[in-house]
Amino acid sequence: MNKGVYAGSFDPITKGHIWVIEQASILDKLVIAAGIAPEKRGKYTFSIEERVNMIIDATKHIPNIEVTSMNVEYLHNFVASVGGTHLIRGIRGVDDFRNERILKDYVAKHNPKINFTYFIPPLELRDVSSSFVKGLVGYDNWEFEIEDYVTKNVYDKLLSKFRGFESRWEQLWQRIGAKGDSTKIYDIILKRYPEPHRHHHGMSHLAHCFNVFDNSRHLCNNPDRIEYDIFMHDLIYNILADNLGDNPDYGKLETYASDNEELSAEFAYQVLEDSDVSAISSKLVKEDILASKHSSIPENPDTKLFLDIDTVVLGSPPAEYDQFEYDIRQEFNMVPEQLFRDARSNILKGFLKRKSIYLTEAFEREYGVQARKNIERAVDKLKQKN
């Protein structure tokens, strides 16, 4: 059996790494090992456990792989310990070539039976490395720049680790004349959005909303209010209802939380009240977030725009939309299949009943046709599983 080993720090794993893994998966088996180098102890951005988990999540679409970790162990010894026959390496440029030649000579000295297999990434990934991605952090709008180089799960982790959108929050806090400690509220935001049960409604969802908002700012009557809405609208995102006891019945709808919007709206309202803000209406903010239950069509134009920003993923390209539906299912993975299909289908059909999917002309014109196609396809898939 041809068994490959692809080892590295993967701090974090990037799309460049994943490309190499995809090419190497033609082997019978591929072991991916996140390692700890003695000279880097205490210098890693993510723990070994975090790195392994990110790799597992980022490579779940690739067959025949095993993800593990290796401590301060010589590479040739590790390859032998897992029964590896091939050592997988990526070469991005001249410097890599020189280093790989040195490594090959060293490994061959100790275990000449190990075969080296090299992959040269395509041009668009050739300079992508963990260090490159982390080197982008801290500049203006870095939160949007890093997304192209990592998978969604890693993107969420990087936004959380490096306190994504903190400067945006501080600037908003100052513009609306809020009193008190902005960092205290941001810390609550940063605690909530990276919660492990969130697969869609996490930090990357905030990023996508802000990206669309920035391009739609000219459509706002009160852009600060909508920006505040985005920060707060999914702050509370519980899956299960409170006070269920030790043995909840996952087959009943009442088992699941139905008051997330109410709790988020109340928190957002109270922050503005406690901070003596008059630049944006705490009452309207509360109404905006409650409207994200999508149970009725609001009248306020800014509320409509906020809801369109929140649901822009409905009009995304098919592959992106399919990932969205997958992520929603993962958030409710404890829900029995039939119950989930029925509830999800009802939500999606509610959008299809509308004359237009989006509430503003600009969004309907840009995303409406694709959104309807995506939702119809999703409803059909839910029917097919019956």
Describe the structure.
The chain is 52% helix and 8% strand. The chain has 17 helices and five strands. It has helices spanning 15-24, 48-58, 75-81, 94-110, 130-135, 142-145, 152-161, 166-175, 182-192, 203-216, 223-232, 260-274, 282-291, 301-310, 318-331, 337-352, 361-384, and strands at residues 3-8, 29-35, 65-70, 86-90, 115-119. It has a five-stranded parallel β-sheet with strand order 3-2-1-4-5. The longest helix has 24 residues, at 361-384. The chain is globular and about 75 Å long.
CATH topology of the largest domain: Catalytic domain of cyclic nucleotide phosphodiesterase 4b2b
CATH class of the largest domain: Mainly Alpha
Instruction: Bin the strand percentage.
Output: 5-15%
Sequence of strands across the biggest β-sheet:
3-2-1-4-5
| Biggest beta sheet attributes | 5 strands, parallel
Mass-distribution shape: globular
List the SSEs and their pairings:
Elements: E1 3-8, H1 15-24, E2 29-35, H2 48-58, E3 65-70, H3 75-81, E4 86-90, H4 94-110, E5 115-119, H5 130-135, H6 142-145, H7 152-161, H8 166-175, H9 182-192, H10 203-216, H11 223-232, H12 260-274, H13 282-291, H14 301-310, H15 318-331, H16 337-352, H17 361-384
What is the compact description of this entry?
The chain has 386 residues and is α/β, with parallel strands linked by helices.
